Amino acid sequence: MFGFLKGKRKVRVSMTDCADRFTQTAEDEEVKIGGSADCAIKVDGVPACLSVKSARDGGVELVPIGDVPAIVNSSPLNSSLKVSDLFTLQIGDRIFYVAVSDAAREKISGADFSKWTVFNVQTGRIEDELPLELIPVSMAKRGITGEGMAMCPSGLETGFFYSDVFGRKGSSGSEGGSKGAIRSAEGAALNISPVLSESVAPVTCPLCWLKFDVGDAMNIATHESLRSDPVLGPNEMLRFLPVSFSPDGVALDPAGMPAPDFACPHCRKKLPSGFFDLDNKIFSIVGAPSSGKSYYLSVLTKQLQTSLYKNFGMTLKDLDPSGNMLLTQMRNRLFSASKPEDAILAKTALEGAMYERYPRFGKMVALPKPMTYAISSEDKSKKEVSIIFYDNAGEHFEPGLDLEESPGAMHVASSAAIFFLFDPAANRNFKKLLEGNPDPQLLIDGRLDQQDTILSEMEMRIKRIAGMDLSAKIDKPLAVIIGKYDIWKDLLKVPLKETISDGRLDLQAIDENSRIIKDFLEDIDPSIVSAAQSISSDTKFFALSALGHSPIKLTEGPSAGKIAPVPEKLNPMYVEIPTLWALSRTTNLIPVR
Ligand SMILES: Nc1nc2c(ncn2[C@@H]2O[C@H](COP(=O)(O)OP(=O)(O)O)[C@@H](O)[C@H]2O)c(=O)[nH]1
Ligand SMILES: [Mg+2]
Fold it and tell me: Could you tell me if 327 and 415 lie in one domain?
């Protein structure tokens, strides 16, 4: 107490070792860091390196001691230096974070030292996220030299230069890399520590959902001698950053062959054709297992194509026939079947055919394949848009699945709009009201209804990834869809309005229908309504049916026991309306009234 009366204040210093997260704290008028006996904070095997004191005019001052300078905020400490409440410290090859305020201590204890973000100092582009000790191997594997790269534990913004910690191994560049540039631009005495900033004009990869700058996209070699990629393996063509181009601007691979296909610099997978020319929108379909996502998606692409053309004179084009193949097959199976057993769509298995393995943050994970379509208008003033869907296994939305190990549903965080497909056939209150209805799904017992949990889990994930407060609302459109409308349409006492007329989408009719469906759902299960409204400030409620009829339970043949649609009764209802609404919210393509 009254320490200031003596002219000197004590400083409380906490130093955390990045390797083992071990934290030492000492408090005194002067706290020395190093290996000698008078050091209150010990770093074995080195002499005393620096002393931490309170500065005369407030704040904290570092004073070098001994011959070998410590590196503070990525610069050798050659003379005394005033620091703010948190700084990085490197002594030999050991790295530390040092806090001299309670706020900084809290920040460090909240950081996740098991996960380091590797980023480009100048562009802010995040390259990787992985444990510290795996960084050099991962960088080498991906052909990144480390020049201009820095890293910090997840939760902190200030980090260490890669070259300071791991040396310049594998680097072919000179000293004049980004580090030098930053130093000369900002001056040696200023804060030159690598700070993670927001990336500039990034696009989101539709395959691994990481952001990158357009200029960082890789090209895919075409010359047969260039088969084998250091990351993707011997069967894939080399991914490279182009340095030469043909006269018409197409990148040339190292063997001089035109290489027009692009790959994401993170996962290195091929981007859909036209990716950089289009306005890309991810529409995420979220729903419990068996809520009807796969049937919905299969019917949607067909209905959307018809509706866009008939009502608005627009075309829906398959942008990626090989990537969309599974969905095309499902759709053909459903619409060309002549008997129920031929129309059954297989359950979407977690990590099954709808998924592919991608490198993400240094490990291989299974992510759902994107299905990409382009919508174009005859009106050339309207930019062509690509819409991207994924067919997830419902398990991917359930709580308890580790996001890092199984990030398969993380597209919700990058999406332009979210469709939450609510399954009335799995909801107890709905089932009570539907007693006597012959739909075989209503007789399936013992299924746990986790739909409200799935919705709140989705909210947590989106807000966590966006770094948002849980009480804040996202502003992207959220369509809450009560599916299987064929089963419950008689429960709705008020008729729904037509939402398309005279070549326009009637937003007022959509609003009115939304209110009718919301009020109805509120009576049956208010938890879904309140959860949905707390997620997005742009929530609307829809009703639709992919099949338009109740499927039947097969009693004989190899598919006995399975539930199958009846091909001649296929009669989709309102299937494309939420997509048209989401398009009207996120593009200028759809004429509205
Ligand atoms: N009554 C009715 N049943 C449907 C409809 N759409 C899908 N189903 C049934 O819902 C079940 C689950 O569908 P599926 O698309 O595999 O669900 P997913 O797990 O969410 O992909 C299947 O038995 C379908 O027959 C519909 O519009 N009406
Ligand atoms: Mg499915």
Answer: yes
